[in-house]
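Project standup — Tuesday

K.O.: blocked on the structure for the chain from last sprint. Re-posting the sequence here as requested.
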Amino acid sequence: MNIQQLEYIIAVDNCRHFAKAAEFCFVTQPTLSMMIQKLEDELDVKIFDRSRHPVEPTPIGLQIIEQARISLKHFKQIKEIVENEQNTAKGTFRLGIIPTIAHYIVPLLLEKLNTQDAQIEVIMKENTTKNIISDIQKGFLDGGLLAGPLNHPEIREYSIYYEKFFAYVSPSDRRYEEKEIDLETLSADEVWLLESEHCLRGQIERLCHLKQAADAENTSVKYESGSIDTLVNIVDYNRGLTVIPEMHAMGLSEEKQDNLREFKGITAVREVSLVTSNDYIRKTMINSITDVIRSCVPKSMLNQELKKFVVDI
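H.V.: unblocked you, prediction finished:
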């Protein structure tokens, strides 16, 4: 048994296809298949059920692959311990970003990273909070840029910035003339929401006290979007309002910014953090990534005092 064989079985599990796994590992399919077969012969078990399409791990294979992921992670940490001790940040950082942050952070991050003379390669992937956490646990990602606090037992959070929430109101809505929106008077049929897979939806439901109403059988919410831009456009052409984070609000046209309103009597904020697994040890890398993200946001959002206004997920 060797490290290469462990990498191969993990690749097949990820791809569920021998040819795709071989391509991912930059080897020929016969080479990959032969090495996995040798491992199976050595262990005297079948790791994969090759009669399935796509290929699937056997029950014992699932246990072996899970342990292989742990073993490879610990193996790689040996080098990371040295790099961390030498206070050097180099190599690749695989970063997952939720869509409601990626929309405005990714262009700024790309600009910063492309102009820096650094030894860090950041590979960014947009996904939902649930999938990003799962990918971190499986070792597919090194970290995620997520809204929190998550309070997940296997995840460590490094707070980076805090952005306020604003109401975006339709010019044809009865509330348009109000200078501030009173959340206590809102009903579910007035608020346009993101799809339930987005954590921002949960924050908006808590902020607006909409959870019970939004889940009711007779709710009049007729459309759920996967995009804040779509919600903004819907509000423009229909009545009602939606809730958007500060950096998205900053990117609106001057005309659309006239439709923004603060909330009456409260400040509502979301906390954006870099998250990693609890055992991720490259502190220098974490510091470098958080520093470049902080450089992408207004200084007003770095104020730690805003943490007390954070709306729970």
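K.O.: great, moving the ticket to review. Residues 59-85 form the longest helix (27 residues). Residues 212-221 have pLDDT under 50 and may be disordered.
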